[in-house]
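The material for today's practical consists of a large collection of protein records. Getting from the letters to the tokens is the skill we practise here. To make this concrete, we reproduce a full record directly below:
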Amino acid sequence: MINIRIILSSIGLLLVILGLAMLIPVVVDLAVGNRDWQVFFAAAAVALFVGGGLFLSNRGAGGEFGIRQAFILTTVAWIAIPAFAALPLTFSELDISYTDAFFEAMSGLTTTGSTILTGLDNAPPGILLWRALLQWLGGIGIIVMAIAILPLLSIGGMQLFRMEASDVSAEKAMPRLTEIVKMIAFIYLALSIICAISLWAAGMTVFEAIAHTMTTISTAGFSTSDGSIGYFNSPLIESIIVVFMIMGALPFLMYMHLIQGKPGSFLKDSQIRWFLSILLIGILAMVLWQMTEENLGFWLALRYATFNVTSVITGTGYATTDYNAWGGFAVTAFFFFMFIGGCAGSTSCGIKVFRYQILIETVRCQLMQLIRPNGIFKPRYNGRPLAEDAISAVMSYIFLFLLTFAILTVCLSLTGLDFITAISSAGTSIANVGPGLGEIVGPSGSFKTLPDTAKWLMALGMLLGRLELFTVLVLFSGRFWQR
């Protein structure tokens, strides 16, 4: 039988943490004299009361925390937290509906970066900080989930990385998974501090540097300005953000290997090499396209291409220019860039590079088998033979991802959206990227004018994409709930 009390206790603890986090914007708004501090304080009180009640009333619940509890907890947590995180947005001076607030909160916690807000340049600092804080907390939550939960649940081939986590946890320096999580959190915080100092030194204010650090290292993309990073018009700031977007999209376990004195792990990981190669090819393609079709000079083309291609491939969603105006090839390329994503065990999103590697390797072995029927060809990943269950999990994930994307596109079209808006909104939500394509939801637009039904559908897409689809969909199976 499923032990609900353990799940409720864990949800309560997470809501307590969320409530405490709401006190940070309270301090900021009090410092600048903004009345929204009362809204944040009231929302914090609600989250602390509900969360504390759930935790205390279910504390000490016996029973084993099994796989079914992990599925339920993961999904319920990623619904409950944005539900409470939306409260201060709803009752603030922004004067938005709960639908818009939930969309914004879900977009933040899933590090999607799609926004319904406009006029960010004049928005209260507490709201801007809250949006950034949601993405920063969502980023560390995603890393922990990718290291500790998804490999255990064997979601979409993530069981491949259970071996890496086991190898690390077996070492004398860090014998337990909890120690790994602590070290990852330390690395995440350290990178955030370095990024914030770098952005401040490059010309941002302290507030802007902190806010953009939170949304950069989490590859999330909320900005403090409607113009996104283009508002600053600074090649130095853009270069710093590019570096940290890439760092956020790399496996955080590899940073731990570096700290442990094993720098060779970065060079040996084929996933990292593939990711950096795809990124470089995408940038070069956009540079050549802008130089030949848009008549831009090399350095300006390189600047625009490097930032915007990196932003979309890593799923961050920042923009420095409207790449919708670059022409048909560029728009098509950016559409496909949405689905690439970064590495497993990072804050990035999308299908992720390792799944493309396994897909291509499997196809290669199938072709070789056709050419040489008597040969034995075994798909390999990082030098290790791939188990059939891992290959099957990856293939199933990719199929389900594409099927869900198609269904979501059709459903969004039924709400009255045009084809470009519907397909790019579906893609950006399920791939957790941020901006879509076209005039309405492109990098120079927002999702504010979309119907409420479309926003709820997109919020569902964000949840499905962030939790790797199967984590949520398995709950709709009748056999899951049987003893």
